[in-house]
Specification:
Elements: E1 12-15, E2 18-21, H1 33-49, H2 54-66, E3 77-79, E4 82-87, E5 96-101, E6 108-113, H3 114-117, E7 125-131, E8 137-143, E9 150-156, E10 162-176, E11 182-188, E12 194-201, E13 210-214, E14 221-226, E15 232-238, E16 243-249, E17 258-259, E18 269-274, E19 277-282, E20 291-296, E21 306-309, E22 315-322, E23 326-333, E24 336-343, E25 349-351, E26 359-363, E27 373-380, E28 386-391, E29 396-402, E30 415-423, E31 429-437, E32 448-451, H4 469-472, E33 477-482, H5 491-495, H6 503-518, E34 527-532, H7 534-545, E35 552-556, H8 562-566, H9 578-581, H10 587-596, E36 609-615, H11 624-636, E37 643-648, H12 661-676
Parallel strand pairs: 32-33, 32-34, 34-35, 35-36, 36-37
Antiparallel strand pairs: 1-2, 3-4, 4-5, 5-6, 7-8, 8-9, 9-10, 10-11, 11-12, 12-13, 14-15, 15-16, 16-17, 18-19, 19-20, 20-21, 22-23, 23-24, 24-25, 26-27, 27-28, 28-29, 30-31, 31-33
Length: 678
Amino acid sequence: MNAPKAKKIDKTLEIHNDKRNDPFFWMNERENPEVIKYLEEENAYTDFVMKDTEDLQNELYEEMKSRYKKDDQSLPYFFNQYWYIVRYEDGKEYPIFSRKFQTLENEEEVLLDVNILAEGEEYFDIGSVSVSVNNDFIAYSSDKTGRRIYTIFFKNLKTGKILEDKIENTTGKAVWAGDNQHVFYIRKDESLRAFQIHRHEIGTNTEKDFLIFHEEDETFDVNVFKTKSLQYIFISSSSTNEDEHRFIPADNVFADWKIIQERTEDLEYSVEHYQNDFYIITNADDSINFKIVKTKVSQPEIENWVDFIPHRENVLLEGFEIFNDYFVIEEREKGLLQIKIIESKTGDSHYLPFSDPTYTAYIGTNMEFDTEKLRFGYTSLTKPSSTYEYDMKEKTIKLLKEQEVLGGKFFSENYISERIWANARDGKEIAISLVYHKDTKKSADTPLLLYGYGSYGHTVDASFSSTRLSLLDRGYIFAIAHIRGGEYLGREWYEDGKMLQKKNTFFDFIDAAKHLISENYTSPKHLYAMGGSAGGLLVGAVMNYNPELFNGVVAQVPFVDVVTTMLDETIPLTTGEYDEWGNPNEKEYYDYMKSYSPYDNIEAKNYPNTLITTGFHDSQVQYWEPAKWTAKLRELKTDNNILIFKTDMSSGHGGASGRFESLKEIALEYAFLLKIDQ
């Protein structure tokens, strides 16, 4: 079977007196039968090329599935008289939301069985489930396409009946007011930007819902949330570099909304409430790594903010939790997350002890103020995800739940993790986290999968994956390059990998790869790159710069047509991302983007073996970006390496729904890597 050859239709795109020819521009016509035909031809070709791995894919799928506990459940948490639980039943794909009154010995009340709701649907995702203050109603939301457009429904828990109220075209979030009669929700515009906050009264026609707030600046998104104290409801309006928050008492939906601090250029802040004060994490006063201030609820403006936890140059503040007698901080130093406990009365502080060379630690779900018990999460490349309870008074740690890895073949001590540092070309040091089986030896013949992301300040921390064991047990090393564009080494690490410094992200990944080769962890013949979404942009750019470094690339839902997408304001995310990539309507940014955009820089040369994936309903990265990229690569590449492109016709940016369906996608990726590593 020959590889598909996409038809070409001349299309000239011109701006700043610069012309680009895009013969595959027609692929953005979602309803065009020829587009569907092309995607299906690529799928058929993928199946053909990967046919000799069908048994391997099934083996990998069953292997990965066998490690999952089929009847697993979440750790219960207590809130407003009830214990809340999310559980799975053997043989079922979707969760069941339930609760128990006062004690865990009481009878279970099923709030929502998602398996019933998802019957007959190719794709189904629950956005959120929220309970009214009087515990009599739930609001829940669902998406049936994968485009992250949710419909909100309401259920009377006393009668079990679904109410007639139905709110479409939302983000899925619903926040209950204290009167149990009203909810606040977020509408999306045509480009899927969260742009309006509405108030709905239970039992009334949704067409009569009251518009509370309309965000007219297209670079901002809105959100609505309730404070941990349940006393205030907040509306936030945020861009990449600015925030604005307004609030009302949760028990008075008709009150006037009061602004904490009006939006100010480059001022970021977020708010939590305790007793008479607001606690605010902010970058005010050049606090690039953030600080915490407090201010009276009655005087929330910035001139009244008083430093509570000062800014530190080498420590990034990531979050906090308030208790009656303790203040807990989540912070990052030299790349590693730490949890710091401060005694409110004395100011004495200490850190939780973590021993792995690279790991993830985070503050968990803590719903109560009046407790000495802190829940926190921990995982590393060799240790499954766990939830612990820390007694802040006695300084004792208790394991509450550890992710079970079934099958009897996983023992943590059989795997080794380490963190090494590579020199970037501009003198900076890049951390690389690695994990491998203890029997795997570093050599030029050892396969290594290098993963990266590097955008939006999102940090890929070292965490456990039971599916990854299928590679490690077959002799692979797995590595994460903590490149610029994330916040691994603080906020400056992010700032140095965005806008007109974006290429640092790509160069860091390349320099990390070269370091792994020079240190004899692997060789170009056995080195593989993987990234998704903005990480797909990363591996796409790296393929253009240094294709000879890698034997294979897996690009998941890749953002590869940067210039054209960022010039199209009808596409979701575009206007809100000018502060991440730059605005190509300005020539300086246009020229810079064009110089690295993977689609615009494909050349007639050899490229690595490549697997590209997408979802037809993807709202974050439209399917046509990877489709066009595939077609252009096919046309220009001069090698005989594999190039396959797989579209899930029923999913979106997050891939298949259901807890096991997504394993089939991973099985395909792993089978591809194992196939080409000969």
